[in-house]
User: Fold this.
Amino acid sequence: MKDTRSSEYTRRLSRVQGASWKQFAPNPYRMWLRRQNLGFTLDVGCGLGRSLLYLDGNGVGVDHNAEFVAICRERGLQAYTPEEFPTSPFATEGRFDALMCLHVLEHLDDGVAEPLLRGYLEYVRPGGKVVLVTPQERGYASDSTHTRFVDGHALVSLAENLGLEVDGWGSFPLPRRAGRAFIYNEFHVVASVPKAHPSHPGGLGSGR
Assistant:
């Protein structure tokens, strides 16, 4: 990632997500996320905890920015740095019903996303969901820390390389053609962990 550990980036994200108009405008993203019925969720790259708050805090966040983690905790959320998470009480096989990685992959250099996600998949139960979201053109251009454009086809390819079951990708909240002008249009993939995923020999159930 580029510059996303810095205090400057923390301030920028706080300013963008905390804009006053967002407190009153309808939020289709929150409604979409809640409709996925994810259950207890591991949020990889949780940022300030916005998506965990949309899920009413039903999950745990991981982020490499220690300031983000501290803010999440101030908000009453469970969050850890990647160095802290393996020794947390949540780092057990099959502990989570789902994993989400939202607006993270576009910050990663080529070849980084797959090993990153593979390292966390063991914590998702067989049959659990994996949600991947990246911005379309206008959103991608809005942040100088974005390093790689990751479209829907790339998300599907990533999910398949991870051994996940995936039917395809979608565009949200508007059709794909809106992505060049509408900053909040996104690619999304909702995949699932096979019942006999290699990370779960014999299809072991949740350790919760």
